[in-house]
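Bumping my old thread because nobody answered last time. Still need a sequence for this structure:
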C-alpha cells in the first residue's frame, strides 16, 4: 500500500488563547480519501479549546487542528470508489471502532474508542477539519447536490445531533414541544421537530435575538424564561408540553423542565450544562416523566445531509458571521460572544 503526501495550511490550537495557521504535511494511502475543505462551523468545543485549552476533560497536550463541522469536495478518491474527484461531500467526523459491544449493537455514539475529529480526548489527538485538505475514509463522505452551498452543508453534523435528539424523543406527530435554548442546536431541533410532525413548537431563550432566530427556524412562539407568568401557565394542570428539549444546559432551565412537561411526558437533555443541578426529583417521580439524555448521533448523519439538501431544514437564519480561515482567531472570538453570534462559519475557498 503506497503512501502519498500533501502539504497545506490548517488552524492549530496550541494552548489556551493560542491558535495559529501552521503548515502541515498530510500522509495518505491509495485507499483513503482527500477532501478539499470549503466551509466549517465553529462549535462550542472549538471555543473551549481556544478559550481554556481544553474541552471538558479533553486537554490539549500538543497542537491540534480544530473543527468537526465541515464540508468540501473530493480532491482524491480510491480507484474503485463511488466517489469522484470534484464531487461535493459533507464529512462525518465520527469514527467509531465498529468492533466493541456498543458498535456491534448499533450504538456507535457510545463507542469508548471513538476517534472524533477535532478532539483531544486521546493522545495523540485526532485532528479536525479546519484545514485546507483533510484525509478521511470513504465511509465518512456523503455526497450532496453541488447546487447547495458548502456553508449550508457544514451544518450536517449539528443537524445530525438535532435529528438524533428527535429520535430519542420518539414520535412527535401531533405533540406539543418546548425547546429551551435557541442556539444552533436548539434552532435545528426546532426545525427538526416541525419536520417530524410536532403540532406546536415553543422556544424559550433569554435573548431577544435568540427568540427572533427561533421564529425564523419555525417556532410557533418564542418566549423568555424570565417571564414568570408564561411559565406558571405552562406549569398548570401537571404541565403543558408533551416533550421538552433542554438545549441550553442552564441549571435553572434543567430544573424547570419537570414543571412544564405534562405527566407521563418526556424531557430530552441535549445541553451539557454545568454540574451540580438542583433537580426536582419528587415532581419528576410523581409525574412519571422520562428524562433522557441525547449524545451526538448514530446513523442520523445521512438523514441530516438529505434534509439539508432538500431544504427540509434551512439553517441559514443561524449563520451570524463568516470568516476566511486566515482570520480563525477573530472567528473564535466572535463566536464566543453569544450576544451577537449563533453559528460562525470559517471558509477555505480559494
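Sorry it took so long. Here it is:
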Amino acid at each position: 500500500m503506497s503512501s502519498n503526501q500533501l502539504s497545506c495550511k490548517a488552524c492549530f490550537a496550541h494552548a489556551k488563547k493560542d491558535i495559529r495557521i501552521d503548515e502541515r504535511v498530510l500522509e495518505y494511502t491509495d485507499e483513503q480519501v482527500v477532501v478539499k475543505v470549503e466551509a466549517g462551523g465553529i462549535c462550542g468545543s472549538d471555543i473551549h479549546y481556544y478559550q481554556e485549552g481544553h474541552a471538558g476533560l479533553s486537554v490539549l497536550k500538543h497542537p491540534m487542528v480544530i473543527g468537526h463541522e465541515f464540508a468540501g469536495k473530493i480532491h482524491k478518491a480510491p480507484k474503485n470508489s463511488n466517489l469522484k474527484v470534484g464531487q461535493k461531500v459533507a464529512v462525518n467526523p465520527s469514527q467509531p471502532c465498529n468492533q466493541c459491544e456498543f458498535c456491534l449493537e448499533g450504538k456507535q455514539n457510545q463507542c469508548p474508542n471513538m476517534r472524533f475529529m477535532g478532539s483531544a480526548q486521546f493522545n495523540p489527538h485526532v485532528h479536525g477539519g479546519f484545514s485546507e485538505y483533510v484525509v478521511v475514509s470513504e465511509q465518512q463522505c456523503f455526497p450532496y447536490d453541488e447546487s447547495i452551498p458548502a456553508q449550508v452543508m457544514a451544518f450536517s453534523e449539528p443537524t445530525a445531533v438535532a435529528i438524533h435528539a428527535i429520535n430519542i424523543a420518539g414520535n412527535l406527530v401531533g405533540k406539543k414541544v418546548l425547546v429551551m435554548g435557541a442556539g444552533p442546536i436548539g434552532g435545528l431541533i426546532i426545525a427538526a421537530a416541525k419536520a417530524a410532525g410536532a403540532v406546536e413548537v415553543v422556544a424559550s431563550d433569554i435573548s431577544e435575538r435568540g427568540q427572533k432566530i427561533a421564529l425564523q427556524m419555525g417556532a410557533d412562539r418564542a418566549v423568555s424564561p424570565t417571564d414568570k407568568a408564561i411559565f406558571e401557565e405552562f406549569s398548570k394542570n401537571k404541565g403543558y408540553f408533551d416533550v421538552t428539549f433542554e438545549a441550553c444546559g442552564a441549571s435553572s432551565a434543567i430544573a424547570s423542565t419537570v414543571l412544564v412537561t405534562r405527566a407521563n411526558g418526556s424531557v430530552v437533555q441535549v445541553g451539557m450544562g454545568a454540574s451540580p443541578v438542583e433537580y426536582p426529583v419528587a415532581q419528576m417521580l410523581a409525574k412519571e416523566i422520562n428524562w433522557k439524555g441525547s449524545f451526538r448521533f448514530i446513523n442520523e448523519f445521512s438523514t441530516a445531509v438529505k434534509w439539508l439538501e432538500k431544504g427540509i431544514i434551512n439553517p441559514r437564519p443561524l449563520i451570524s458571521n463568516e470568516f476566511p480561515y486566515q482570520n480563525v482567531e477573530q472567528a473564535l472570538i466572535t463566536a464566543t460572544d453569544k450576544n451577537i453570534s449563533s453559528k460562525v462559519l470559517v471558509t477555505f475557498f480559494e
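The CA atoms of residues 201 and 220 lie 6 Å apart. Let me know if any region looks off to you.
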